[in-house]
């Protein structure tokens, strides 16, 4: 996000309130961008690939929200909303069944099925479930993550974890909307 748009904490706004406010602002912005870019696309347009092995628009949306969910959960030592809300069963994912055969983690927090570490041949077979169903998950994840931040103690926010091989404050890892923006 451009620096001129980032809110700066004021002496009157405590750190935790600032973090929660910033999270909600960024979550709203990401959803607005996703809606503007893909909200009116057909399933065929969402699944279009520029070439074999290249991710479709749909895969970027899928990956963006799942990775954010898993990073957030890893940062705060909680279960991802994807698992907690049983979203795999709630969304029509038959067209993506092969994604879930990818066992293990792609990195510290993110499972391979999030499509950040999937063979090119598999990418070509993955097709989007109904976008509205998936965005219901995204909205649930963003709202519940905001609640976790609201309920977090100052120690929870300041806790240092290892992410991407380096020490980082949990709140910094959890609020990494930069990852989301790369995919928009």
Tell me what portion of residues adopts beta-strand conformation: under 5%
Distance between the termini: 12 Å
Sheet with most strands: 2 strands, antiparallel
Shape designation: globular
Order of helices and strands: HHHHHHHHEEHH
Major beta sheet, strand line-up:
1-2
Class by alpha and beta content: mainly alpha
**Which ranges are low-confidence, i.e. pLDDT below 50, for 5 or more consecutive residues?**
none
What proportion of the residues is helical, as a percent range? 40-55%
Mean pLDDT: 80
Radius of gyration: 17 Å
Characterization of this structure:
The protein has 10 helices and 2 strands, in the order H-H-H-H-H-H-H-H-E-E-H-H. By secondary structure, the protein is mostly helical. It has a two-stranded antiparallel ribbon. A hairpin with a 2-residue loop joins strand 1 (160-163) and strand 2 (166-169). Helix 1 runs antiparallel to helix 7, helix 3 (57-76) packs parallel to helix 7 and helix 3 (57-76) runs antiparallel to helix 10 (177-183). It starts with 14 loop residues before the first helix and ends with a helix. The model has no long low-confidence stretch (mean pLDDT 80).
